Amino acid sequence: MLTIGQLAAFAGVTARAVRHYHQIGLLPEPARDASGYRRYGAKAAVSLIKIRTLANAGVPLSEIGQMLEADGSTFDEAIQRIDSHLRDEIERLESSRKQITQLTAGESLALPPEVTSYLDRLREIGVSERMVEAERDGWILVVARWPERIHQIMPAKFAHLDDPRLVRLYRLGSELLDSDAGDDDPRLEEAADILAGLAEQAYTPGETNPDEDAQHELPFGLLDALAVESDPRAQRLLDLMRERGWASWTRTRPQRLTEPAD
Amino acid sequence: MLTIGQLAAFAGVTARAVRHYHQIGLLPEPARDASGYRRYGAKAAVSLIKIRTLANAGVPLSEIGQMLEADGSTFDEAIQRIDSHLRDEIERLESSRKQITQLTAGESLALPPEVTSYLDRLREIGVSERMVEAERDGWILVVARWPERIHQIMPAKFAHLDDPRLVRLYRLGSELLDSDAGDDDPRLEEAADILAGLAEQAYTPGETNPDEDAQHELPFGLLDALAVESDPRAQRLLDLMRERGWASWTRTRPQRLTEPAD
DNA sequence: ATGGGGGGTTGACGCAGCGTCAAGGTCAAG
DNA sequence: CTTGACCTTGACGCTGCGTCAACCCCCCAT
Fold first, then answer.
1. I want to staple B220 with a disulfide (CB 3.0 to 4.6 A). Which of A229, B86, B120, B251 is the partner?
2. B216 and B162: one domain?
3. Which residues contact B197 (CB under 8 A, 6 or more apart)?
């Protein structure tokens, strides 16, 4: 007769595991000897090995009991279920691995390569590191809401960098972020003028903008909030844009709040 | 300002998950509004998305905090650790899948194919189902203790089936298991005679048996116990073997207990 | 006889990452 | 005013054991 430790060693598990199987009713409690020790026979060893075989194959303990009692077809069904579950798990982990190898740099965190290229391009243009980080956080929000559309958006963004006004705008932002200029800095006005001009151009009045619905889904509110949270002076910029008839400095649609409603 | 539900929805998680991140200090608790609701800004959304990006990549929550603060090389090291851990997990599951697909029939449970073939062969010879099951459980114990050696053992076992004495022995076992014969059934004596003869042949006296140490490691005690547990009449067989000078009906070494010690 | 070391016993908490009640308070709409 | 959808804290549940704690038991050496 074996003690719990001997039984466990024979099956290659710990005594704690055996006691656990008793607790959940997977392995019947054996009789005790005079001093209260559990004493196991050979059949218990066989049962324990069967249990471990299934458990090692990835069968949850809660199902092993039924499987050991099941007949051939029921058993095979269960095997199928377990196997497809394992397949799913493996797929999940595989995709995790793919994802994680993308995360070599802290920057690519949560961003597709197009966007990180764009950010690198900004650096080449002379945009400061703080400005790039602010831009990056904004893109994280956009990507989170619109993961697929990002492929359509980025080429336009790259092309837009050919516009000297936009470059000037980024440089203004860089300067302002790195300075301790106040709300009254004239560069804020200049930035607002550029933004208004770009917005005017992007918004072709009279025509139905096909992306209008889509744009409506973009998290403009969050982007504005992000800017203000990153630098309170962004609030001034927002006010200036509102003066110029634009609802937000990231949204390219005119507001009508100051005009009478239809 | 977002409520917890809105924030969670934006990042594609549940509110409970966000609260969990607060609890473990991964995401800072935001300020509350007048009615005690948590109110989140855009930066929280960015943080949450970063957290989920790493979590989706398989990074344990407990490490995400440090990773978000880490610099490039520290970050990359962590990535390497996580990746190799993922690889291990995947391998584990892959091997589980391999194992589980082997378990198509209830019989192959915990047994390599050589052994199941042997059991099938026994059925062909006319061994009863109960006898095969008893034999199977015995092999489960042997395989558990000696998983690699089984490849060496089985060919000899197959060859041994050419010996008509062994076949007769299995048939006797089948008959006895299916009958309600008592301890005094003469077939028990016949079985003991065959066993003794086979043992005599297997044990070549005077020569040093190279497998002696190895055999010593086989779980003979358990095998004997298993037989007796399966059918109490096996005890009688053991006694008969002892009378004939053998320690156990599964062990092929003579006992010297009845002779004076050296 | 005594002491020590290596077994055994039950009971309990801990782990990861939340899901899911319970028992309320709040908010916007009809 | 009610309803339904949200928020709050607190707590247990899940998986498969690991790991104390506090105590008992057996065998061996002194």
1. B251
2. yes
3. B165
Is B110 in contact with A226 (Cβ distance < 8 A)?
Answer: no
| Gap between the Cα atoms of A44 and A50, Å rounded | 10
| A60 CB contact with strand D at below 7 Å | yes
Residue B132 and residue B56 in one domain: no
A14 touches strand D (CB under 7 A): yes
- Å separating the CA of residue A221 from the C1' of nucleotide C27: 21
Same domain as A226, residue A121: yes
Please give the Cα distance from B242 to B198 (Å, whole number): 15
**What count of Cα atoms within 13 Å lies in the side-chain half-sphere of residue A11?**
29
Alpha-carbon Rg for chain A in angstroms:
32
Number of Cβ within 10 Å of residue B230's Cβ equals 19
B45 alpha-carbon distance from chain centroid = 47
Taking 70 as the threshold, does the pLDDT of residue B237 lie above it? yes
Give chain B's domain count: 3
Same domain, B219 and B133: yes
> B81 to chain A nearest CA, in Å?
11
CATH of residue A7's domain is: 1.10.1660.10
Q: Computed from CA positions of residues A176, A182, A187, A190, in that sequence, does the dihedral angle turn out positive or negative?
A: positive
pLDDT of residue A106 exceeding 50: yes
Indicate whether A80 and A180 sit together in one domain. no
Same domain? For A176 and A86 the reply is no
Mean per-residue pLDDT, A184-200: 91
User: How confident is the model over A196-255, as pLDDT tens digits?
Assistant: 898 888 766 544 444 444 444 667 888 999 999 999 999 999 999 988 888 877 665 555
Does any domain span residue A254? no
User: Which residues of chain B (20-59) touch nucleic strand C at CB < 7 A?
Assistant: 20, 33-36, 55
- Protein chain A, residues 39-58, with a C-beta closer than 7 Å to any atom of nucleic acid strand D: 55
Q: Which residues of A touch B41 (CB under 8 A)?
A: 225-226, 229
Window B:10-49, CB contacts with A under 8 Å:
10-12, 41-43, 45-46, 49
CA dihedral A127, A136, B84, A16 (to 10 degrees): 140
In this structure, are B24 and B146 located in the same domain?
no
Residue A255 counted as domain residue: no
Of B10, B82, B109, the CB nearest to A50: B109
